[in-house]
């Protein structure tokens, strides 16, 4: 029973993150559902990109604001804020990757999780 509550919470956090991305016009938003993958590190990955480091940082800030407003939760860990090329926001069960366009193409994170269920979202 507790597991279902955790999964529902992680799905909610991922949706809040997607809303934060849409608010700042992030591109090619996807959510990878990793719950059925044996060695997964979290329940969901949310991935998007933007054309400039300034927009990448704005998206990351928007995500944090949306999640905090709704849940009073801060990310467990944040990486990449200094350069704004690949910002990672780790909410334990949800990990959000905000890339600059060229970095997303180079690293291809979503390709590493080919077994995941992928949901595509429209940019706002």
From TrEMBL:
Which keywords belong to this entry?
Cytoplasm, Repressor, Translation regulation
> Does Cytoplasm show up as a keyword for this record?
yes
Say which domain of life the source belongs to: Bacteria
One Pfam family from the UniProt entry? RsfS
> What SUPFAM superfamilies does this protein map onto?
Nucleotidyltransferase
Main localization is cytoplasm
Q: Where in the cell is it found?
A: Cytoplasm
InterPro entries, per database record: Iojap/RsfS/C7orf30, NT_sf
| Role | Functions as a ribosomal silencing factor. Interacts with ribosomal protein uL14 (rplN), blocking formation of intersubunit bridge B8. Prevents association of the 30S and 50S ribosomal subunits and the formation of functional ribosomes, thus repressing translation.
Q: Which HAMAP family match?
A: Iojap_RsfS (MF_01477)
> Which family is it part of?
Belongs to the Iojap/RsfS family.
Assembly information from the UniProt record = Interacts with ribosomal protein uL14 (rplN).
Q: What is this protein called?
A: Ribosomal silencing factor RsfS
């Amino acid at each position: 029973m507790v597991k279902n509550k955790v999964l529902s919470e992680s799905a909610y956090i991922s949706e809040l993150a997607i809303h934060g991305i849409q608010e700042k016009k992030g591109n090619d938003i996807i959510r990878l559902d990793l719950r059925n993958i044996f060695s997964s590190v979290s329940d969901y990955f949310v991935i998007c990109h933007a054309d400039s480091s300034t927009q990448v940082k704005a998206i990351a800030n928007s995500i944090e604001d949306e999640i905090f407003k709704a849940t009073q939760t801060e990310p467990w860990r944040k990486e990449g804020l200094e350069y704004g090329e690949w910002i990672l926001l780790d909410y334990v069960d949800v990990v959000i990757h905000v890339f600059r366009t060229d970095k997303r193409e180079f690293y291809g994170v979503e390709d590493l999780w080919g077994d995941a269920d992928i949901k595509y979202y429209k940019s706002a």
